Amino acid sequence: MARPLSGVRDLIRSPAAHWTVLVPLLATVVLVLSWGRDLPTAGVIIAAVFLAGAVLAAVHHAEVVAHRVGEPFGSLVLAVAVTIIEVALIVSLMLSGGPETASLARDTVFAAVMITCNGIVGLALLVGALRRRVAVFNAEGTGGALATVATLATVSLVLPTFTTSTPGPAFSPAQLAFAAVASITLYGLFVVTQTIRHRDYFLPVTSEGAVIDADEHAAPPSGRRTLASLGLLLVALVAVVGLAKIESPAIEAAVASAGMPQAVVGVVIALLVLLPETIAAVRAARRDRIQTSLNLALGSAMASIGLTIPTIAVASIWLDGPLLLGLGAVHMVLLAITVAVTTLTVVPGRATLLQGGVHLVLLACFLFLAVSP
Predict the structure, then answer these.
(1) Lowest-confidence segment of 49-58, 215-224, 244-253, 341-350 by average pLDDT
(2) Where are the domains of the chain?
(3) Which of 69, 236, 299, 322 might form a disulfide with 58, Cβ 3.0–4.6 angstroms?
(4) Residue 352 burial (CB count, 10 A)
């Protein structure tokens, strides 16, 4: 235990570290005290504050781990960590929510795809173009990631609308099993490609196209500090999952009282769990690491589908009622134009303010239509 404790002491001595150590621990305490209780308004607000703090702390510790392991492993760490939050939230809400949560997995996963491919990508390109006039990235790696996202989204979210084995936009058990195996296989293949076979395709590049193999000019953190950050990252993620579960009744009540569709709950969950990715991607773009930002965005979209669908397929054994995965016509149009626009953005390997603005407008369309279908 001496090494992790000394790593925590190293973190506490570092400049921004006091709050990044204390907040996850305090958030866990709030989680324990709040679990299973009906909170008053003040309690909901306190839980929300610590939820936001735990999210920011998770970003900090994920970036420490990412700096130690380097790119593209660092992007993968945060993408998988955030997706674990999403999967845990979806499964827990579906197990406790009853038949009205039949479409929660679809709504949340699709919202994650739209937020990552339009929101995070758009913000990263906007920040990068404002800083250097032209945001530069590796089209080969980003194009492969986009192709994987498009395939996963089509197999898991579009095909259920058109299959005829079961009524409604749902897979039969055999079809769901096939989609789950295909999703996890594609995701695993991408991870091998990103981290082993063609790692250089996912590294940041200069404006001349030269690969930048070093993640930062600063020295990487020590092994003890990295282990401490890894432990605190896990604590922060547990706090985020638990506090978000506690906040979900308040979110559902607010959505219902505002007269908005139930699908908005999935959008709120996706916005919440993707906040760490968004912050990390914008920070990377400000450091001229647009490729890192795109790795985070597309990697999160891919993990959201590739890990959520297999987990939901297993959880469906215990779920009551149908599992609705197929998108409606409006959402299929939004998905199609998102894939087309992102393809046109990725192919040249460089983007301007215009491309960033187009992606953000697509996100705004999705959010507006979610509230007012």
Answers:
(1) 215-224
(2) 2-371
(3) 236
(4) 16
Contacts 24+ apart (CB under 8 A), 103-106: 103/262, 103/263, 103/266, 103/324, 104/265, 104/266, 105/308, 105/309, 105/312, 105/323, 105/325, 106/157, 106/169, 106/266, 106/324, 106/325, 106/326, 106/327
Which residue is listed with tokens 């949560």? 101
CATH topology (fold) of 2-371: A middle domain of Talin 1 (1.20.1420)
Q: What is the pLDDT of residues 300-330, one digit of tens each?
A: 888 888 888 888 888 777 777 678 889 999 9
- Whether 221 contacts 64, CB under 8 Å: yes
Note the pTM of the prediction, 2 decimals. 0.81
What is the rounded distance in angstroms from the CA atom of residue 360 to the CA atom of residue 114?
A: 10
CA distance 168 to 160: 8
What confidence tens digit (pLDDT) does each residue in 40-91 have?
888 888 888 888 888 778 777 877 887 777 656 666 776 677 777 777 777 7
**Number of neighbours of residue 229 by Cβ within 10 angstroms:** 29
Those residues whose C-beta lies under 8 Å from the C-beta of residue 130, and which sit 6 or more positions away, are 353
